Every structure is written in C-alpha cells, then in structure tokens.
Amino acid sequence: MIRARAVGGYLMTLVLASSLACGGGGGGTSNNTTAEWTVMVYMAADNSLAVDGIFDVDEMENAGVTAGVNVVVQAEYSPDVLAQYQCGAGCFNRPDFNTFRYAITQNGGSATTGPDRGPVQGIGNVDMTDPNQLKAFINWAKQNHPATHYLLVLWNHGGGYAGLIQDETSAGSGLMSVDDMRAALTGVGQLDVVDFDMCLMAGYETLVKLDGLADFAVFSEEVVPAEGNPYTAILDALQASPTAAPQAVANMIVTQFHNAYTAANDKASTTISAYNLSGFTAFDQALGGFATALSNALPTEAVNIATAAASSQKYAYSELTDVVNFLDSLNAHVTDAPLKTQIGLLKTQATGAGFRVASQRRNGAGSGQQPAADVLRSSGLTLVMPSGQSGDVFNASGAQSLGAYQQLYPGRPWTNFLNTWVTGQAQVPTQVVDQGDLTRLEAYLVWDQGAIATGADVDFWVLEPDGNIYLPAFGSVSPNGTLSSDSYVDGVNFEGYLTNRVIQKGTYKIYANLWIDPQDFQPLYDLAYRNDQTAAFALLYGTGSQPTLSLTISWLADPTPTLAEVEAGSYTDLQYVAFTTFLQSGAPMAFQRPQSGAMARAGGTAPREITPAQVATIRGLVAGRAGRAPAGKRLGQPMPFTPRGK
Questions:
Q1: Does domain 35-278 have CATH number 3.40.50.11970?
Q2: Mean pLDDT lowest among 58-72, 168-182, 459-473
Q3: pTM: predicted TM-score of the whole model, two decimal places
Q4: I need a labelling partner for 559 at 20 to 30 A (CA). Which of 40, 77, 178, 605 fits?
C-alpha cells in the first residue's frame, strides 16, 4: 500500500455543497549530536499537492525516531487547495498557513494529522521557489542537526529542464529554474544524495546542474503519482541500516519506491532510478562525441534519426526521450558507421555500473494488455530530443523552447546539435497562449458526497489539445497543467486541475467516469470552474440539471469504445461534461455544456480518439481497484451537508 488514508468525506468549500441535490506543533529539543544521516525534506506544497504533503509528514512520523537518523522538514501548504477540503490551518496542527520548519524528535508515530512529534518553528510566508530559501533551509538543517551524511529531498511538482518547485501563494505559476536550483545548492557543502520526489526530473539536464554539488541523484523519468515517496518504508529501511553508504541509500530509495507501487497494484505506471555523479563526466564526454556524430550524419540520416526518436520511449513531455532506448532505436535505423561507433560508446557509459546505480520501471496494473503509459523501455535517464513528428517539437517560446534550453545549457555539444536539428522543424508559435498568472483555467468535477460511504468512485478526465487524456490517478502533471490528488486515495468527492500560465491553444474537453459503484448509488455530478484564482467558483449545471452516472451501460463492456461514442451519450458511466477552447491570448471561451448527438462535438470537428493503449491502461486501473476501498484516515472534521444557493 502506498497510503492507508482518506481525506474527508465532504464537499469542497467552493460553491459546491450548495447544489448537489440529493495548534501548534509538539515540544522536544533539536538533536545537536552528530547522527549518521540527516534527511532534509524541502516540501513545497503550496499548490495542488497540499494534502499529500500533510500526509507525507505523518508518514515520516510513523517511522519513529532513532539516534542514527535525523529527519527535518521545511513545509508550506496551500490555503486555497485545503479550503476545498474544508480544512483550515488547525486541521493539520498549525495556527496558520505560513512556512514552518519541523524536526521529528519524538517516537510514538503520527498521533495527530500534521506536525506533532517535535519542535515546530514558523518562519513567515516565504517563497519556496526562491533559491535563497532552499539554501537557508539546508544550512539551518546542517547547523542544527549535523550528521555524517546528508540526504536532501526536493518535494513538489517537476518538469525536467522546464523547472521544478511551485509556490502558488508567493510565486503563482512560476517554477524554480534548474539554474536557480544549482544556485541554491552551491556553497552548502556536502550533499550525499538528492532525491527528487516529483515528476520528470530523471534527465541528463538535471545531472548537468547537479554536477559537482551532489554525489548521487534519485529521480523519475515519468510523472509520479501524487502520493510520491513511501516515506515510512524509506525511513524504516534507513533507520535499520544507519551506517549505509550513500550509494546504498540511493539504491534503497529506488527499491522502496518501486516495491511500494508494485504492491499497491492499482496505480499508474512508475519509473525510478539512481545515478552516481562521479560517472557523469565520462557520460557527458561520450554524449559530446555522439552529438558531433549525429550532426555530421544529418545530411544523409535525418529521416532515420527522426524515425528513431519518434519510436523511442517518451514521457508526459514528449521531448523527454529515454537515452538508452533512443540509442537502440537509432542503431537499428541508421547505417552511418561513425555514428554507430558513437552510439556504442555512449550506451556503454549510460549503462555502466559507475554511473547508473539502479533503475526500476513498471506498468500500471492491467488486464494483460499494454497500458497507455507503457514505460517498460525506460532505462533510467532521459535526454531532450524532439523527433519533429506529430507535435513532438519545441515550443517557440517559454520554458519548453529551444531558446530556453540554449540559455540553460549554452555551448554544450548537445545544445549545438539541437540547434542544428530543429532548424526547419515546425515549432508552435501560434499554438501557445499566455493566460496571465492569476487568470488561469481551473476546473473540478464534484459529485454527491454520499457516494464515498457507499464505496462509489468517480474520476475526472481531461482531453488536452495534444490528443492525450490525463487523470489524477496517472500522475500530478500534464503538459498543460497540474492535477489534483486522486479522490480514491484521499477519500473525497472531487478531482480536477489547474492549467499552467502558458498552455497549448485548442479545445480542452472534460469527461466524468464512474469507476465503481458497488451499491448502485448513481451519483449526481457537476463541474466547478473559474478563470480567476481570486474569484469564486461557478457551477456549469446547477441544481435540477445535474447529470447522473451509473453502470447500466458501461464503456468497459464495449471492446472498441471511441470518444465519438462517449460524446454521443452512448455510455452511462463515461460522460462528456464540458469543453472550452483557447483561441487567443487571455481568457478562453466560456465552458459549454455539450448536447446530445452531433451537438456534443461542438468543441471541435472530429473528436480525437482515445487510443487502444489508453483504453488498456484505464481498464487496468479499474481492474486494479476492484475490491479495494479507501482507508479511514481523514483530514479535518466532517462538515454538515448544508444545501445553499448557487
């Protein structure tokens, strides 16, 4: 099990209850004796992952305390997100929503939701994306909780070379850049292991910024489910072997992460790997030779290179390409002899024991079919390599553009190759819109709170303009936004997502899927949305017109379901909820309710179809969840159901 918890069986505070008809931390003193390890968790949870952050602290507490291992946290939670759970500051044992530092110094496990096993120090509302704040936390932890070895966990959303760590209150949609991350880690001294508890960070580009500052890195090529690391299991393992060397600890994190998600059997596909930075220089030099050989081969091999890149293992950001799988694919397509030689040399370095410490990957539990998020060709490390095919290209501007990459990695051989490679490739200047920082589309599917007690579960799907479907059950990041926690894990009756500031133009479609309904509850649902993060939410349907989900006609019984059939109203458990279209800078078109039949497809021409692989993954999640019910730990106190006006 990844989690044994649920987070409240009540409606979002927003405006939702209306219309669906039917303290401070503990005492204790800091540990000033030198331990074997100090685990420093920089928890930036002032965003959609706030609830997961609260429960991760409880998981750390449940590991208990030993003399050999210190655990310290700097954390901040989102008041806006927690309001949706009817949770004020007091529900996680703090007097306010300010940033705090916390040392776990007392045994007894998590007696109260939130920090209660040691001293807590409020430090005001700081910007967690500020590299100076990260640097200050590391220095504070080392001064007050010294150890022989240091493990730094960077906790939040990640986007590879596009950035990491979000603080909605202080920095809006902005992320800490990887250059800022390097600035934060420069000058703090020894960092034995840096663990990225976030999405998409297992890249060459991350290692460039860590080079010379840390000994080992642990990270994921693919998006990571919102539950993130299994902290109790990781800390238990470390406490059982407190004298373990850094490489063993890096491998330990990989093992515990992979084992936890394998045992859960109902989660999205996962990847996790660890690398030894002492082997990075040799890898980087081999990559330079490979980049030169690729550039030299372009006149005759361009088509083969594009084909190889397009057929390689990809992730939520399509330009992120698994290094070894790309090399294997390339070797099968090209004939250029010098290039083949460099392919072999780079693969030797990429897979060498002195560089790659461990790599694990697994597809989400399924029905024997290949899942959409098929990550079985993952080898542990990605490289930015857009194929130039089917939208797998750089944006023309912003964090995922060639210009941004060049600024982050100037003069490097791989940067020089990319500059040559993308010349003439289509980019997307007319397909990106800047919404502004406080006027981003935000939408939540919400359903009868009574469904929770009956074991019914509903999922939010969003079909983005790239033609892919994203669900909270698959991970917390999509190319255009961040998703909420999975309602099935947290025990709540809503899911949704907040778009990024800069997103792809086109039509966004939302669907409601009834996963399970063991007591035939047939929940009503609605869509709460806003385009202003300071405004109240509006409801799309409202009392008296809210649709109902049931298992009477299931899309799972259809061997070849299509979105056209969904949008025509063919199923009772998978329904088309709404669409909106971004045509120009600023606000999108207002959310619209689809009508039946052909009118349902007003959001575009022919709907982009769900692929057989996507169908397989979603079927697999249904199979994996069968017979499972959310556990009983809840955030905050149950709130009375009080119907109110819209």
A1: yes
A2: 459-473
A3: 0.81
A4: 605
